[in-house]
Amino acid sequence: MRRKASLILLAFAVFFAALSPLLRWYAFPRLAKIPANQYQDMVLEAKDATLLDYGTMQAKKVPKVTIVQTLKGNVEASDRIEKTAGRDVVVWDSLSYVQGPDGKMVSKLPERYIFDAHSQDPVHATGESVDGDPVTREGIEFKWPFHTEKRDYEYFDAQTRTSAPIHYKGTQTFRGVKVYYFEQTIPWTKVKFPKVMPVQGITAESVAKTGTTRWYTTVRKFWVEPVTGAPVYGEEIHKEELRGGTLLGDRDKVTAFAGHVKMREDYIKHTVALVKSNRTLILLLTSYLPWGFLLLGAALLSLSLYLEARSRRPGDPAPTEAAEPEPVSA
Q: Are 139 and 165 in contact (CB under 8 A)?
């Protein structure tokens, strides 16, 4: 009976020991992916900002500028692209909508971002765009890869339609979560006017005819949870200027927008809670279960060897029967 039990335990030990690396190195890369139908939104604010009044063409201080960012998974588009790409693809239709303190639109920037669901590498396909203009992204945008590394990454900037390094600056703790801090600086760059302008009747083409150009610079900061690759917090020190042309009269330049953009507190709390939950799920596949199965396999192997050794131990000697006394002859 002990021999049979030891063989069963040995079989389970081999099973769990083999399952451990398979779960980490085979199952995880295939199971961990961004869902195609994901939807998320984010509200950011720039308090005490500077904003251009297009009616008077004068920059003025305002109490708050609000930026609403939405990411919506386009399942139909991702299914169509997957047929030719031969891999799991996510298509995000995003919108960055800026409004002033009166609730009126300042600008809006739509994007279509196409990327690999597992690695977050960009996938180049028809429809990849910023504000309706075709682009070819290099590097990441919005999200870092699973198991983010302590190194620089290429990060796409939608305003300039180019990618530039975003630098790893160190490891910190944010709201109880270990994060990697990244920072990117985009120097003053001439950029396009948005296709939808805040004043009715004014278009990007009509402004361009005046000779006035739009310039932009920003310092972009992200605090990224490395297991999920998801930012738990972000900031931008953002500046825009209009330069030259007859639109500005005798002025060389005027500030169109300047502010320190930060995530709103309620969205910080929601994001941190969501990232913590997703982090636990990923650690189950990459750490908790693989190590647990490996330790369980080792324990079962030890128990199997113990029972095998017990089954091979010689039995105790059989008790000797006392001989009956023989009668003594006279």
A: no
d(CA 87, CA 59): 49
Strand pairing partners for 225?
A: 230
Say whether 51 sits in a helix, a strand or coil.
strand
What contacts 18, CB < 8 A, 6 or more positions away?
none
Model confidence at 135: pLDDT above 80: yes
First to last CA, the chain: 56
Ordered alpha helix ranges (H), the chain = 2-22, 28-31, 75-85, 204-209, 265-283, 289-312
pLDDT digits (tens, 9 = 90+) for 149-193: 999 999 999 999 999 999 999 999 999 999 999 999 999 999 999
- Residue type, position 135, single letter: V
Two structure tokens written together for 326 = 């023989």
3 with 305: CB under 8 angstroms? no
Share of the chain above pLDDT 90, in %: 62
Residues 6+ away with beta carbon under 8 Å from 129: 111, 112, 135
Assess contact for 54 and 202: CB atoms under 8 A.
yes
Which residue, among 315, 321, 308, 261, has the nearest Cα to 5 in the 3D structure?
308
Residue whose tokens read 């990441």: 140
Residue partners of 221: CB distance under 8 A and separation at least 6: 181, 182, 183, 234, 235, 236
Tokens of residue 152, six digits:
């620089």
Global model pTM greater than 0.90:
no
CA distance 117 to 83: 14
What is the chain's length?
330
Mean pLDDT of 26-55: 90
Say how far apart CA 293 and CA 295 lie, in whole Å. 6
Within 8 A by CB and 6+ apart from 264, the residues are 43, 44, 45
Please give the radius of gyration of the chain, using alpha carbons only, rounded to the nearest integer.
Answer: 32
With 0-12 / 13-18 / 19 or more C-beta atoms within 10 angstroms meaning exposed / middle / buried, residue 292 is middle
Average pLDDT across the chain, whole number: 89
